[in-house]
Every structure is written in structure tokens, then in C-alpha cells.
Design a protein that fits this description.
Number of helices: 13
Number of strands: 7
Structural class: alpha/beta
Strand content: 5-15%
Radius of gyration: 29 Å
Shape: elongated
Strand order of the largest sheet: 3-2-1-4-5
Length: about 375
């Protein structure tokens, strides 16, 4: 029997004693398994503990018998002859889905199911077996299937061009910036809409509702993130971003008196690739490096926008100035109090898609045979 009890040396004496009790109980059960099946050994030990007045949760912890079985055993001790409790029927109740378990797992792997009820419905529809969401949960746990947050794959992205750009350009620029040979900036714009429901998870016993504004007041930010220092240079407005906004930002960058050559990574948005922007960059000695089309994963400042939006969640803003001030304070903190967080978000790793294999028509997973993906 596997035993995965871990004793933290920092726990108090009570916790250490409890873990030692669990270890001792498992040794007793293992010893009894030399003379009887594991199910019966656990049942006998559980009955002794129950009759000794030990609570159900503690019995479960000590014997590793499931909570439902312990509750049932406590009830049976009051209503049935004790001799009947020593009888184990054919190794336990057979799972309803055991004979088709492999087929069910294959079906889950081939399609996109977002909750256990959907899987239960699929089992009934395809195999004619009615099962509960709890049974589905046990099936998933047994087969090491978890609910994982899905990632986005730009439909028009060219994985080969992204890999080529990273290998031949981006990685080299990142290394030079780390070595102090060049200054590397990642530029992009983001639009923060007050009332756009920046909702997230709030822990509690019941679901909570956060007030949101019905208006659509928008705060536009064009930022340039220094790859090494994590300082953000920005321009902002309340209407829209255009080529003039990019020029204003380039002028701000040029005034930083940086001794190294400056490279700016940016996407192919029309207002960032227009003639006036490119001409001004040439005049200022700033080198613009455009990422391949449909490749937001290559522009690391996108992670900064995600950080800002996560910190806007679960708060109601009814004042636009307060909303803007909060965004500005988060952006201005990236090279100060929040630098450690931003360093973890923005480093050497780039999400690439050239080793994905299809699961179905519009879903892909990482290839297990290719270890070149940098996540």
C-alpha cells in the first residue's frame, strides 16, 4: 500500500503526533493484509475506531477508507449483526463503467468537455449507462484527468514563422539586452473599458456579485516595456490610439538618454507601421522590429496588460479618474514594488506553437515527443 504522509518539520507537535498515528495505523492495516484482503482489514480497523468514539473524518484519515464507506459502516454497526460486516462481497461493488472505461477516456480525450455533468451525459448517450457526477469525478481522478485552463491559439498564426523569428531575431535581441549591449523595448496598446466587467474568482461559501458600470468609458494606453528593467514608458488618452500616439511614445523613449542602440518590438497594427512612425524612428535612431502577423504571444508586454486587468477585478469603479489612476499606478509599479512579479511574468520564456498536435478540429495539445516548446 502506498503511503504519502509528509511531516513538515515546521508543524506543531500536535500535527506531528497526528501524522505518526496515521503511520502507525497504516502499518497495522498492512500487517492485517497478510491474513485478509485490504478491504476487510480497513473495515475492521474502522469499526474499532468508530466503537471507540473516533469521528468519521479522523477514521477516514487514519484508515484511508472513503468517507461514504465510513458513514455507511457507522450506520451498519447500529442496524446489522456485526458478523455480517466481516463479509466482503466479491472484492467490492463493480463500477458501472468499468467495462467501457477505456472507451470513455478515449472519448474525453478526443472532444472538449468542460464539466463533469457533460461527461455523465455523454456516458449515458453513448454507452447507455446512467452515472452520477461523483462517479465521473472518481473516474477522472483514477485516470489522472484534470480540468485545466485552456490556452488560446491564434487561428491565423504561422507557427513556423514564429519559431524562425524567435530563433533568428528575438532570442538574440533578448540576450544582447541582458548583456547590456542594446536596449530592448516591447511596445503595444491596450484599451481598458470601465464597466467591462473585470470579474474574477472570490473565495466564499456562496457566489458573489460585484457591481459594474453600464457605460463604456475607455482608457487607451500605449506602452513600451523595458525588457531588462521592466520600466514602462507610456502615453494615454480617452479617445483612440493612432500614429501620432506612437510618435509621442517614440519621442519619450528617445529622451531617456540610453547609451545603447534601442530596439522596439511591436506588432503590425496599421497605426504602428505607418510612414510617419517609421520615418520618425529613423530620425531618432530607434530600430523597429515587427513580429510576424497574428503573433501576440511574441510581444511580451501582452503579459503586462494581463497583470493590470487581473488587478482591476472584483472592484466597482464609478469614477473614471479613479479608474485611470488605478491603471496608471499598476503600470508605474512594474519596475518598483511589483518588479518581482513582472520579472516572473516576463523573462526568457516564449510561448510557441510549432510542436502542437491536433486533438480535434479546433483543439490542440503539446506533442509529448517534442521538447522544444518554451512555455
Amino acid at each position: 500500500m502506498e503511503h504519502n504522509e509528509n511531516i513538515d518539520i515546521d508543524n506543531n507537535n500536535t500535527n506531528i503526533a497526528i501524522n505518526k498515528e496515521t503511520e502507525q495505523m497504516i502499518k497495522i492495516i498492512n500487517f492485517m493484509c497478510m491474513f485478509m484482503c485490504e478491504t476487510l482489514a480497513k473495515r475492521i480497523v474502522s469499526m474499532i475506531l468508530i466503537l471507540a468514539g473516533i469521528p468519521n473524518a479522523r477514521v477516514t484519515e487514519l484508515t484511508k477508507l472513503c468517507d461514504r464507506s465510513v458513514r455507511s459502516l457507522r450506520k451498519d454497526l447500529k442496524t446489522k449483526e456485526i458478523e455480517s460486516l466481516f463479509v466482503v462481497k466479491g472484492g467490492g461493488q463493480k463500477s458501472k463503467v468499468k467495462d467501457v472505461e477505456t472507451e470513455i477516456v478515449d472519448e474525453i480525450e478526443k472532444n472538449n468537455y468542460t464539466n463533469r455533468q457533460q461527461i455523465a451525459d455523454m456516458i449515458f448517450e453513448k454507452f447507455g449507462i446512467k452515472t452520477s457526477v461523483w462517479a465521473v469525478g472518481r473516474l477522472l481522478k483514477k485516470n489522472k484527468i484534470r480540468g485545466l485552463k485552456s490556452g488560446s491559439l491564434p487561428a491565423k498564426a504561422d507557427a513556423e514563422k514564429q519559431r524562425e523569428f524567435c530563433d533568428n531575431t528575438l532570442y538574440q535581441l533578448m540576450e544582447k539586452a541582458k548583456s547590456g549591449i542594446i536596449n530592448l523595448q516591447f511596445m503595444d496598446g491596450s484599451h481598458f473599458v470601465m464597466g467591462c466587467d473585470f470579474l474574477g474568482r472570490i473565495y466564499g461559501k456562496t457566489r458573489r456579485f460585484v457591481k459594474t458600470l453600464s457605460g463604456r468609458m475607455r482608457y487607451n494606453v500605449l506602452g513600451a516595456l523595458d525588457y531588462v528593467t521592466k520600466e514602462v514608458t507610456m502615453v494615454s488618452n480617452d479617445d483612440y490610439l493612432n500614429g501620432g500616439s506612437v510618435c509621442d511614445l517614440l519621442r519619450k523613449l528617445s529622451m531617456k538618454n540610453i547609451s545603447q542602440a534601442m530596439y522596439v518590438i511591436l506588432d503590425n497594427a496599421r497605426y504602428q507601421k505607418c510612414k510617419i512612425v517609421q520615418e520618425l524612428a529613423d530620425q531618432l535612431g530607434i530600430i523597429l522590429v515587427y513580429i510576424p502577423p497574428y503573433s501576440p504571444n511574441l510581444n511580451l508586454i501582452e503579459r503586462l496588460w494581463g497583470f493590470v486587468k487581473r488587478n482591476l477585478r472584483t472592484k466597482y469603479y464609478d469614477n473614471f479618474d479613479e479608474f485611470k489612476e488605478r491603471i496608471d499606478s499598476l503600470i508605474n509599479s512594474t519596475d518598483k514594488e511589483n518588479k518581482k512579479i513582472i520579472d516572473q511574468l516576463i523573462g526568457k520564456k516564449i510561448q510557441l506553437f510549432d510542436d502542437l498536435v491536433p486533438v480535434n478540429e479546433n483543439t490542440f495539445v503539446k506533442s509529448k515527443t517534442n521538447g522544444t516548446l518554451v512555455a
